[in-house]
Amino acid sequence: MSDYELDLDDANGLAKVITTIRSSGQISRPKVVRQTGFSRTLATKHIDIALSSGLLYEGELGVSTGGRAPRLLEFNPSAGTLLVAELGASGLSVAISDLAGNLSQVKSFNTEISLGPELVLAEVERAFDTIIAEFKIKNIWGIGIGLPGPVEFAAGIPMSPPIMPGWDRYPVRARFADKYDAPVWVDNDVNLMALGEHATFPGKKSNELIFIKIGSGIGAGILTHGRLHRGAQGCAGDIGHIAISEKTDVICRCGNVGCLESVAGGLALARDALDAITDGKSKFLTLRKKTNKTILAQDVIEGAKSGDKWCVDAINNVGNQVGRILAMLVNFHNPSLIVIGGGVSAAGDQLLASIRETVFRRSLPLATRDLEIRLGSIDDSVGLKGAAEMVISELFEPEFLKQWINSGHPTRLHSHQK
Amino acid sequence: MSDYELDLDDANGLAKVITTIRSSGQISRPKVVRQTGFSRTLATKHIDIALSSGLLYEGELGVSTGGRAPRLLEFNPSAGTLLVAELGASGLSVAISDLAGNLSQVKSFNTEISLGPELVLAEVERAFDTIIAEFKIKNIWGIGIGLPGPVEFAAGIPMSPPIMPGWDRYPVRARFADKYDAPVWVDNDVNLMALGEHATFPGKKSNELIFIKIGSGIGAGILTHGRLHRGAQGCAGDIGHIAISEKTDVICRCGNVGCLESVAGGLALARDALDAITDGKSKFLTLRKKTNKTILAQDVIEGAKSGDKWCVDAINNVGNQVGRILAMLVNFHNPSLIVIGGGVSAAGDQLLASIRETVFRRSLPLATRDLEIRLGSIDDSVGLKGAAEMVISELFEPEFLKQWINSGHPTRLHSHQK
Question: How far is Cα of residue B249 from the mean position of the Cα atoms in its chain?
């Protein structure tokens, strides 16, 4: 048990003290008093709680102002360890992170999300267990999981995910909380990639961000004032099933007709590529199919890079379709930065050019005055980085901090989430 | 000059104390200490500043706990008076408000925004001056202005407004700040109507709000966590010029083709109504034109209510087109409440039904699970109410509060805004 009985206002103050020290590197106690605006007594109380929770340490000697030189305070990123995992349609990655979001032990495995939660999550646990055993990790303060479909964030469960049979309402949070006795947060992979991009390129511009993932499907992650906009049900950004075309007879995997991802996602690219081969429209793809037997979106991207006309047109079409939706979202949301990620973004500058052209032609001049559109980080672990950012920001939310400090340790906290 | 020299942290604390007291009705000093988490010394300092600024008064006697009964603290909504104005395409309204957002002296006048800023703003000033003289108002603490076009909020100037010739970059803020020696905030009318709807129906549901105004044109105001989302350039919500149709040959007043408002706004309704009369498709409108000489959107709405088939179809078409865009925005933004306002919303339940039908058919099930779509307040002064809400929330922003308290009075503050 803890020595403390914080109320929410105490926790607000404690969170402010910790945030001040986290963003300062090293800082003296009088400076904490000045920067928080708290009384010396109040600041000292919060600092003492943070010290005894292991969140701070007293490091180097500061400048003496007469008497004994004071020790400077510093945030301790090694106080706790985070486990993070990102699940995709056909693979998963895991890593550990410190409390500053520094990843290590990044490992990737092939799997199929369609095998269902029991098998796939057992693989995640096996990967976590291997790292825990190897590095004798004892202080697991939180777990962050990214899933390739809609998640009810507050509950930590997937909701009617279209490509994940058997996952609907599966208690992902409860499973990991029970096994590791730690608080667990679950979100969709696109939101976490948006957080990861924001952490990779911090600053004012990336605080108003729309991140677009063009993979097998298409989704968006939205940041407002530097924080994720999840919306009322936590499914904001689910743009893959926006109806973009009335003419098409293509049925989307969601069952509707004319959805954005059914005409511009990676699966659509591969499907159209097979038609192009049948119709004899692409030499590059015909050769590739002979060699590899199958055709993937990746082949169309390589064809476009080698100058195959059908492939070039196909990538431009993806850019135009995504650009049309983005132009609407630019008028509606007025972001300052759009980042394009996901597997199809490997098409690079050609894709970027066609997206830019459509967005700037179709959006209002005022909304695009300072708008930057660029490709995402080439770092594969941007989603894992985002998962760590998610856990860190949730750990230091005052409501959570209160329960954690009062109960003595974040590992004890998972029960309140269920 | 003021006796105070607050830094931003002091102002944060002061804002917290004022907010605590504003939302409490009457409150004792020990309760302020408890609810803010501040030390007694710090809370007393902030309370003293607020008292000497006239923002609080000490009212009724509280319950004695032994000694002398303490006086309870109360927010003083009459400390300052706000002037608010809302300009439309063909009319303007003005009012005064107290610091709790209670409007009085609401007055409306006919005018034409196309007469340009000098003439129209002179009318606003004349209306303000009449109220000021009649009620001997001396304590003008802030002015809020709504304009029917894009506004750069930080600068308080209209930006390339499509229906406002002569208004582009006109210094609206500076003009009113100079004349009334008060801080001035300017925003577009749709954002202010969204704030007004939020103030009329406060609560969790209206914190994630998309307000749609269907007037001559079409625009949206977006609330996230109960605050306006203005976007990077302050032009978020400008959905009237989203390209909705590729087939149409209708040229929008913005110069592009197929914009939402060119097929579904009030001007579009009136234009199509004239064609219907020429083609002999509506008995109701033909009769109406004979009587009134002109045809307005209002006539189509009345025709629909009287059962004229062409008018019914026209209103349904507006609902379907607006519903198509809203369905996209629901997938993207995941709001919990959509409110339909503006002149065309007088079409009532019929319009609402066709919007609902389209939104619920085309949005993802998760995003519409708890989504409420309803008609806006029938109160004409909802935009004025929003203008007052805007000024009140800006007055109590810590950055602003700091300068105001340090300089002694909000009237002295307009110079920093220019």
Answer: 34
Count how many pairs of residues, chain A against chain B, have C-beta atoms within 8 Å: 153
What are the E-state strand segments in A113-252?
140-147, 151-152, 157-158, 184-188, 209-214, 218-224, 227-228
Plot region of B231 (φ>0 → left; ψ -120 to 50 → alpha; else → beta): left
Asked if residues B83 and B96 have their Cβ atoms less than 8 Å apart, the reply is yes
Please report the residues numbered 63 through 82 in chain B whose beta carbons come closer than 8 angstroms to any beta carbon of chain A. Answer: none
Encoding tokens for residue B93? Answer: 């309204």
CA-to-CA distance for A242 and A262, rounded, in angstroms? 10
* B197 contacts: CB under 8 Å, gap ≥ 6: B206, B209, B211, B339, B341, B376, B377, B382, B386
Q: According to the model, what pLDDT value does residue B411 have?
A: 54
Residue A344, token pair as written in the block? 């199809």
- Chain A residue at shortest CA distance from B12: A37
Q: Distance between CA A185 and CA A390 in Å, rounded?
A: 8
User: Please, what's the largest Cα pairwise distance for chain B?
Assistant: 86
Contacts of A328 in chain B (CB under 8 A): 239, 242-243, 325, 328
First to last CA, chain A: 21
pLDDT at A11: 82
d(CA A99, CA A101): 5
Mean pLDDT of A196-215: 90
Task: Judge whether B219 is closer than 8 Å to chain A, CB to CB.
Answer: no
Does the beta-carbon distance from B231 to A335 stay under 8 Å? yes
Between residues A328 and B412, the one the model is more confident about: A328
- Give me the residues paired with residue B107 across strands: B94
- Tell me the C-alpha distance between A143 and A173, whole Å: 9
A91-110 tens-digit pLDDT = 999 999 999 999 999 999 99
Q: Is A109 part of the contact surface with chain B (CB cutoff 8 Å)?
A: no
What's the pLDDT tens digit per position in B130-143? Answer: 999 999 998 899 99
> Taking a C-beta distance cutoff of 8 angstroms, is the pair B186, B172 a contact?
yes
User: Which residues in chain B have their CB less than 8 angstroms from residue A243's CB?
Assistant: 324, 327-328, 362
Contacts of A10 in chain B (CB under 8 A): 37
Which of B34, B37, B236 is closest, CB to CB, to A334? Answer: B236
Count Cβ neighbours within 10 Å for each residue of A398-410 and write b for 16 or more, e otherwise. bebbbbbbbbebb
Interhelix angle for A297-305 vs A266-278, to 10°? 70
* CB < 8 Å to A237, chain B: 332, 334
Contact B245, B258 (CB under 8 A): yes
Q: Are B350 and B315 in contact (CB under 8 A)?
A: yes
CB-CB under 8 Å, B367 with A331: no
Contact list in B for residue A245 (CB cut-off 8 A) is: none
Q: What is the pLDDT of residue A160?
A: 77
Instruction: Give pLDDT < 50 ranges for chain B.
Output: 1, 412-418
| pLDDT one-digit tens code per residue, A176-190 | 999 999 999 999 999
Chain A residue with the nearest C-alpha to that of B231: A334
Among partner residues A160, A239, A328, which is closest to B366 by beta-carbon distance? A160
Characterise A61 by phi-psi region: left (phi > 0), alpha (psi -120 to 50), beta (else): beta
Distance CA A239, CA A217 (A): 10
Contacts of A335 in chain B (CB under 8 A): 231-232
**Residue A354 predicted with pLDDT over 60:** yes
Smallest CA-to-CA distance from A54 within A408, A392, A412, A394 is with: A408
CA distances to A56, A323, A404, B49, B67 from A4, in Å: 17, 53, 10, 33, 32
The whole-number pLDDT of residue B54 equals 87
Q: Using one digit for the tens of pLDDT, what is the confidence trace for A236-263?
A: 999 999 988 766 678 888 788 889 999 9
